[in-house]
Amino acid sequence: MHIDHEDRKLLAAAEAIVTRASVDWDSLNSDCDPQIVKGLRTIEKLLARTIASERRWPRVGESWNNFEIKGKLGFGGESVVYRAFERSLDRDVALKLRVSRSQMLDAKLAEGQRMAQIDHPNVLKVYGIAEHGGFLGIWCDLIEGEPLAAWVAGGKRLGGAELVVVGVELCGALAAIHGAGLVHGDVKPGNVVRAFNGRYVLIDFGASIKINAADKVRGTPLYTAPEVLVGGSPTTSSDLYSLGALLFRLAAGKPPVNAESFEDLLAAHRGHCRIRLLDLRPDLPSQIVAIVEGALSPNPLSRPKTAGELAAQLAECLPTFDRHKGFKHIALMGMLVVSVILAWAIPLHNGPKSLTQSVGFVRTSAASEAPLKDGATIAPGETFALDISPTRELYAYVLNEDAHGETFQLFPLESAEIKNPLPYGNKIRLPGRVDGKALDWQVTSHGGTERLYILLSESPISELESGKKLSLAGVERAVESMDKVAAPTRGAGGLDTHNPARASVLWLWIQAKLKQDPELQIERIELANP
Predict the structure, then answer these.
(1) Residues 6 or more apart from 449 whose CB is under 8 A from it?
(2) Are 530 and 196 in contact (CB under 8 A)?
(3) In the chain, what are the domain boundaries?
(4) Whole-prediction pTM value?
(5) Relative to the CA of 134, which of 184, 357, 386, 465 has its CA 20 to 30 Å away?
(6) pLDDT in tens, 299-312
């Protein structure tokens, strides 16, 4: 029997599938019948799932490597996600295990190392990756929250403001991923979680690849760019298309291109048969509609060039901060928002270190005072203060923002004895005294998350100097005399007489100030207030 070149390649591919060796799918696609190649890929996937199902997976109470399995969080065709306890660091993590394949091991380990280098509040933090006992495991931050897929399943549709917040935060996530030389490859509702602290977090790097890697579609077809569906490699532009499809789904309740089969989906893309967002949501601002439609352009060259550019477009729909007049819908400068997106991936200590010897919040309601650090939990009734040791005369401002975007100015306050500028040479405790009484800030209600910002400058910030009012998102709160407890709408905006013994709008405003004054020093901590 004569065996031609194509048959030899197909037989070699079949043997590789059976022996779990690597297959050169690009070469097969170019030299062989596409339908036969498609059949071989299906066989490979079925075989992988069969092997995975026959493998004895770790059970609750058992161990894998350095982890104790505490419960199952989810599973896919070839992987299981567990809640696990990492003994060496005494913490709970999410542990994803998949059957190890020798031909993929080196590439997956290298990919995990790149992912572990990404440190961004809207990207799932990967701690490590290892091969053990026939499984490849990757462990990461355990995010407590709700996947956006649950919103979609429940028929929830977002309004314009929340849609923009989701988009801006996920643009920040993609900017960090792309900056690490990776493409996510599967941006969809099931891979975004709204954490209980209010952040939108992009998770699951299962389809991620290096930028410009010669790889084919591995994402979810309804959210995949058309050029990838027909065999192109995933790119940063295709990630932005997927984000546009996600935003469309969150706004409209259905994907921009709907189809019952993969073939129907391809045909719909070829015929440009796509639903228009305005037809489903005529109530949305036209600017938001146009931005989402632009991200969904079938031509990659017509989409935003980068995640930062898309974020800039979205942020133009956000209100800007005005201390005395509340929020007005004024467009923000594109370059400002690009800097905001990139700033999430770097430390917030922007100004000169020499402004202070030390600065930090202190929990004062405990039996003995203790530092109040980023990530700590604080409850209604608890009090805290700020200790600062200036090395030169400076102006200090303290702002508080809760998970709903409501913001309070904690310092300076009109009736406080301590005023800006603060003198140097000694440690100073804020907010200070009124009528000889030392005062602390008090948490007066549940807020979900409390973000505390410290702004330090050698020159005054005029909008924050009067200490009378702070208006944010239409919610005004008068900061009254400090000789009595102030009752804020929520969160840590109150004051307590002490006996001695969403990429948020406020953050955009702070970054605007940083553009005006590059020497501005910014400190931020985030507290859980469940």
Answers:
(1) 197, 198, 402, 403, 526, 527, 528, 529
(2) yes
(3) 5-54, 63-140, 145-317, 353-529
(4) 0.54
(5) 184
(6) 999 999 999 999 99
